[in-house]
Amino acid sequence: MLSFQKEHGEPNSFVILGTTANRKQSMNYGCIVENEESNEVLHYVEKPSTFVSDIINCGIYLFKPDIFQHIGAVFQKNQQDMLLEEPTNGWHRAEAIRLEQDIFTALAGQGKLYVYKTLSFWSQIKSAGSAIYASRLYLNQYHTTHPERLASNKEGGPKISVTIGAGVRVRESIILHGATLQDHCCVLNSIVGWDSTIGKWARVEGTPSDPNPNDPFAKIDSETLFREGKLTPSITILGCNVTIPSEVIILNSIVLPHKDLNRSFKNQIIL
């Protein structure tokens, strides 16, 4: 990305990291219209109501100190506009500067802003479910780029900081330091917090939020926590020092730290 900035545009130009999304999901992100030859950003719209472009903003930027001149210019403009408008909440609007809506839209088409389109994977992390998806992507990447960062098989098994009993099944989950998974428990699509314990034959399961595997440009949909008054099915999260007794099921639930459960729960937030 740094090499791209040095090779394109003026010395004081700025770069946005972009990627390709499908037509429907692109409207949930900042959309970029580019010059295909120079990669200059010609038009930028944050979360448009209609389709603008399938190139979206990844939220990673490369700026030079000159960006503060443009921020200052926007601030001065907001101050001047405030004096011409009604005073109601004007001070708040003048002091609030939005990078995407105020700065990028002004720089687009001025030869100052360029987009670097990554060909690697990218995922927005706004929920715990997307953290599991991103973790899987990185682990797969490390197999080819940094295998030394992965725990290796050896006599007695790899050295880990969790206790896993006989017959335990773990799939598409994150198990944090000090957790104990007792014999024959099952953990699917979940995050188990630090020093938590899951009893024998217990089942902790969530609903995956992966993007459509048949669409190469699909992204994770940012679901709201509640839908129609009910908790949206998502991954199960156990906070630190949570104890799950034997032979119970915890499904699509969020359990806050330091809870000792005594029965099964489904689609609940346990405070």
From TrEMBL:
Domain Nucleotidyl transferase: 4-78
Pfam family, one: NTP_transferase
Family membership noted in the UniProt record: Belongs to the transferase hexapeptide repeat family.
The protein, known as: Uncharacterized protein
Residue intervals passing through the bilayer: none
PANTHER family linked: SUGAR-1-PHOSPHATE GUANYL TRANSFERASE
Domain Mannose-1-phosphate guanyltransferase C-terminal: from-to ranges: 162-270
